[in-house]
Amino acid sequence: MREVFQSELLEVQERLVDISRSVVTILEKATDAFLTNNVSQADQALEISDANEDKALALDELVIKILARQSPVARDLRVLVSALRISASLERMGALACHLASIARYRFPGSAVPDSLRKTFEEMSALDIQLAKKLTEVLQNADVDLARAIQAEDERVDELHRSVFEVVLSDNWKENAMFTVDVTLASRYFERFADHVVEISSKVTYLTTGEWHETE
Amino acid sequence: MREVFQSELLEVQERLVDISRSVVTILEKATDAFLTNNVSQADQALEISDANEDKALALDELVIKILARQSPVARDLRVLVSALRISASLERMGALACHLASIARYRFPGSAVPDSLRKTFEEMSALDIQLAKKLTEVLQNADVDLARAIQAEDERVDELHRSVFEVVLSDNWKENAMFTVDVTLASRYFERFADHVVEISSKVTYLTTGEWHETE
Questions:
Q1: What pTM was computed for the model?
Q2: Which residue among A51, A179, B18, B49 is least crowded, i.e. fewest CB within 10 A of its CB?
Q3: DSSP notation for chain A
Q4: B168 in contact with chain A, both atoms CB, cutoff 8 A
Q5: pLDDT, mean of residues A70-87
Q6: Min CA distance, B60 vs chain A (Å)?
């Protein structure tokens, strides 16, 4: 019985890693769409995200079946409850990435990114992609050091998020309201995406070490 | 054993209703702060939201204890898993309301709401408060008809959300970038708040009738 349970837990973990990998792909395509006005990449991001939602739903069903069959307690129970939360966060990350892709679609053939903020958004995109890749590793190896590194990197995303508002609210900002709306929302999506990475990695750290890192 | 379990389920439900009631209070204070530049209301919203996060955390712990002690299956198990998700959504709704309160704090003594969008935001505030109150009733009575009414009202929130962008992107919009940023984010917070109400009420409908209403 214990062996069956262990192999079921492993399957849950593998599925979380798989969903996390898809989120990386969605974000790569969505940021490419956002930064280079590439509508075909935007469409692909939206398509993969749809499939990912189905995967998350199927994972939740699996977790509920395991809970019913195995009646786990203590740490095993917490791992499964956390899996449900991680799956919800990963699904949300895919949706946030898709919002970036949608901005690109709306503005096509124009760009959603004004020149004055191009570097900032390139850095935010690269950071979020990096964070999503590290998260996949954390989920695969329960790597606690990596989980801590993630928290430090999130601070840089927050810094960039604040810097977007500094630029937009400065006297030098000459862009129209459309750009103001786009960059405000896009910056918020990047920041929330990174927040979810931190929340998930905190959960993995907690499950592995028992230490709880407050994420908010 | 079954009686103990029933009384534990009832406690979970009562706590969800209590947290949902607090979310109504947080939103009432936050929208008042946002619409009338009332910093003291903003502070109170933030304070109640902090307490609410603790309540949500305590509820999650209770649910995990019940899962461990009672090893529920079938519908009972689904009710408890849903309680975890509803608690996470309610916590998030409190946080979204607090973002509105924070906008008011940043802009004080000025207003975060330009005259041209005052009516829109008053309607959005009233609708979100109404939705949050109905949600409390849905959680209390598993009222499926009310859950359906909620889904219709959310459509009006989405309409208002789109209308904010129409105003901001029209030639008549003469406000500065600060207002553009504030109304863009505020409108998004109102819309997300209503989304969470719909998601939770769909879960209650599903648990009560077995019918799943897609919310996205």
A1: 0.94
A2: A51
A3: -HHHHHHHHHHHHHHHHHHHHHHHHHHHHHHHHHHHT-HHHHHHHHHHHHHHHHHHHHHHHHHHHHHHHH---HHHHHHHHHHHHHHHHHHHHHHHHHHHHHHHHHHTTS-SS-HHHHHHHHHHHHHHHHHHHHHHHHHHH--HHHHHHHHHHHHHHHHHHHHHHHHHTSTT----HHHHHHHHHHHHHHHHHHHHHHHHHHHHHHHHHS------
A4: yes
A5: 94
A6: 10
